[in-house]
Design goal:
- About 45% of the residues lie in helices and about 20% in strands.
- It has about 325 residues and is an alpha/beta fold.
- Strands 3-2-1-4-5-6 form a 6-stranded parallel beta sheet, sandwiched between helices. A 3-stranded antiparallel beta sheet has the order 7-10-11.
- Helix 4 crosses helix 5, helix 4 crosses helix 11 and helix 5 packs across helix 11.
- The protein is globular and about 55 Å long.
- It starts with a strand and ends with a helix.
- About 45% of the residues are buried.
- Bound molecules: NADPH dihydro-nicotinamide-adenine-dinucleotide phosphate.
- It comes from Salix dunnii.
Length: about 325
């Protein structure tokens, strides 16, 4: 039998956490034959709710779930974990300045980073979900310098999946027949959902999405804003933010990272920029990546037209500003 993998979920008593932990315990994240031990962290005001989630995990009798650690102690939560999904964060409340939210999150990520650095298993893979996700990932790295850059990522897979969903509805094709959309940049409304390299499997072979949609006006405007603003649309409809789809996409992100992307297919992940596509090195930026043997690689050599170039730059500029703001909270 395989040895159990320890998966940390922070903010586990929250909305996304509640949707995410049963998916992990069912094998959605790491596969149906991979036993898991869940480590759940939350803050003291959420301790009782967290214990309730633990009770439900016991009650659900998941065959793959070999243990549950539910704690408000970051060191206990981080000890021995192989995968860390960072969902806990300070939400932006009405009337709060961006800088105040940033400063709260900087201090959360600072302390969790050092707990992870000191106590996680070697080669622990980290996925940051809590917003501002890209910049929280940067801060985490700053305070966990011994965790390699390649092990720290942030979630833009939900945006990627939303783009697939929009194309699927528009063309009335299966989402599983569409591939290679890209989310560039920040997990924010400046992200750039790009279909210029996306294709659809049809009975007559693979066809470019642009050719099939035949409506550049829709693709260059409404499609982009729909994906960018989908989170807000869900809050409006549900009166709560997207938790189910965020949790499911977090599982997709980790599964593809660990188990690999299918040949010829890429996905979007927020990763350290190495300067590819002229994105400033040292930002955590969403790129198209392929994964193999537990490592991601930025897809190289894609053509970027003038329209796209501007969008890539706009979202990079926002990330540079966020980075500056975050570092100003450190001093
Ligand atoms: P959620 O579980 O709904 O969201 C958690 C985080 O994920 C938020 O930062 C949220 O950002 C972010 N997020 C990223 N992508 C998405 C998406 N597509 N849809 C929705 N959210 C997204 O929040 P809850 O408030 O229900 O739960 C948060 C938990 O974190 C609570 O249990 C709380 O106790 C804990 N917490 C932990 C702290 C700590 O570790 N020190 C501090 C504060 C809270 P956004 O806010 O932009 O929606």
């Amino acid at each position: 039998a395989k040895e159990a993998v320890r998966v940390l979920v922070t903010g586990a008593a929250g909305q996304i956490g509640y949707a995410l932990v049963p998916m992990i315990a069912r094998g959605v994240m790491l596969g149906p034959d991979q036993p898991v031990i869940l480590h759940m962290l939350d803050i003291p005001p959420a301790a009782e709710a967290l214990n309730g989630v633990k009770m439900e995990l016991v009650d659900a009798a998941f065959p793959l779930l070999k243990g549950v650690v539910a704690t408000t102690d970051a060191v206990e939560a981080c000890t021995g974990v192989n995968i860390a999904v960072m969902v806990g964060g300070f939400p932006r409340k009405e009337g709060m300045e961006r800088k105040d939210v940033m400063s709260k999150n900087v201090s959360i990520y600072k302390s969790q980073a050092s707990a992870l650095e000191k106590h996680a298993a070697a080669n622990c893979k980290v996925l940051v979900v809590a917003n501002p996700a890209n910049t929280n990932a940067l801060i985490l790295k700053e305070f966990a310098p011994s965790i390699p850059e390649k092990n720290i990522t942030c979630l833009t897979r939900l945006d990627h999946n939303r783009a697939l969903g929009q194309i699927s509805e528009r063309l009335s094709v299966q989402v599983s027949d569409i591939k290679n959309v890209i989310i560039w940049g920040n997990h924010s409304s400046t992200q750039y959902p790009d279909v210029n390299h996306a294709t659809v499997k049809t009975p007559a072979g693979e066809k470019p999405v642009r050719g099939l949609v035949k409506d550049d006006t829709w693709l260059n405007a409404e499609f982009i804003t729909t994906v960018q603003q989908r989170g807000a649309a869900i809050i409006k409809a549900r009166k709560l933010s997207s938790a189910l789809s965020a949790a499911s996409s977090a599982c997709d992100h980790i599964r593809d990272w660990v188990l690999g992307t299918p040949e010829g297919t890429w996905v979007s992940m927020g990763v350290y920029s190495d300067g590819s596509y002229n994105v400033p090195a040292g930002l955590v930026y969403s790129f198209p990546v392929t994964c193999q043997n537990g490592e991601w690689k930025i897809v190289q050599g894609l053509s970027i037209d003038e329209f796209s170039r501007k969008k890539l730059e706009l979202t990079a500029d926002e990330l540079s500003e966020e980075k500056a703001l975050a570092y100003s909270c450190l001093s």
